[in-house]
Specification:
The protein is built from 11 helices and 11 strands. The protein is an alpha/beta fold. The strands form 2 sheets. Strands 1, 2, 3, 4, 5, 8, 9, 10 and 11 form a 9-stranded mixed sheet that branches. It starts with 10 loop residues before the first helix and ends in an 8-residue tail after the last strand.
């Protein structure tokens, strides 16, 4: 059966609109857009934007480097990597390790540098009709959802979260599809709202979930498993037009000040740090 999709813009049109946004000088700026001489373009994921982390990091960066401005393009990791291949962004902050590895292997960037980490959670209705709470692993939970055809909302947008979801279905030995499985084709925040409205299950990063939890009828049901670790990496595309400026930001994010900015971030000023700087002695995958 075909996978139902919500009425959303065609993915190719969305990618083209992003490229056009760059071409006409649009995008999201922090600390003022600056001039072409002091600006570079960062392609970042929707989860870093939706959670508020990106705005926080750029504000702290501008305190240390007031003469350099960051123009951001927000997209799923797959779309961001596509913009990196064409040189439309100068630096990438993404969280799709397998796609990043292919990007490097194809010669589009010299390496991937993990810089921060948070976690994924599988969320669902508080009543948990599928009874996945306490599952031994995400793949076990996904197998239960597929076998019972319990409602699931996927981002379906080639984002890092979507890639991880696909991996869990593969590990579970299940094919996701049919009336119970819906692709939103949208970012994390919108996908969470759709899942909440439908009483469905969803894979999400924990920071965006924490930000929106007060307005969602969802609970985190499976969390803390090692395979739910969510690693964000920096990649400097070889096609980027402003590598020197991008490297200033990349170096800052890896510095003591950048790591401190990551560690101090709180969603809605809450007590728990949902992102952590990458531990240098931890393997990248």
């Amino acid at each position: 059966m075909d996978t139902p999709r919500l009425a959303v813009p065609d993915r190719r049109r969305r990618r083209a609109s992003l490229a056009l946004l760059l071409a006409v000088g649009g995008g999201v700026c922090a600390g003022g857009c600056g001039t072409a001489a002091d600006t570079f373009v960062l392609g970042a994921t929707t989860s870093t934007y939706d959670s508020g982390l990106l705005e926080h990091l750029i504000a702290r960066f501008n305190e240390d480097h007031p003469g350099l401005r960051v123009r951001t393009v927000i997209a799923g990791s797959g779309e961001a990597l596509a913009l990196g291949r064409t040189g439309d962004v100068d630096l990438l902050l993404v969280h799709a390790p397998e796609a990043e590895a292919r990007f490097v292997e194809a010669g589009h960037a010299p390496r991937r540098n993990p810089v921060l980490v948070n976690g994924y959670v599988i969320a669902g209705p508080p009543s948990d009709p599928a009874r996945i709470r306490g599952s031994a692993s995400p793949s076990e939970a996904f197998a239960t959802l597929a076998q019972g055809e319990h409602g699931f909302v996927s981002r379906g947008d080639s984002s890092g979260t979507h890639y991880r979801e696909i991996a869990f279905w593969r590990e579970a030995g299940e094919a996701a599809g049919g009336a119970w499985y819906v692709e939103s084709g949208q970012g994390q925040a919108t996908t969470l709202h759709v899942a909440s409205e439908r009483g469905a299950y969803v894979l999400t990063d924990d920071a965006t979930f924490a930000l929106l939890s007060g307005v969602l009828d969802l609970e985190a049901l499976v969390e803390g498993h090692r395979s739910l670790r969510n690693v964000y990496s920096l990649l400097a595309p070889g096609a980027g037009r402003r590598p020197e400026r991008a490297e200033v930001f990349a170096g800052w994010l890896r510095s003591a000040n950048g790591r401190g900015a990551i560690a101090e971030f709180r969603v809605r000023g809450g007590p728990e740090a949902l992102f952590a700087p990458w531990p240098g002695d931890d393997p990248a995958n």
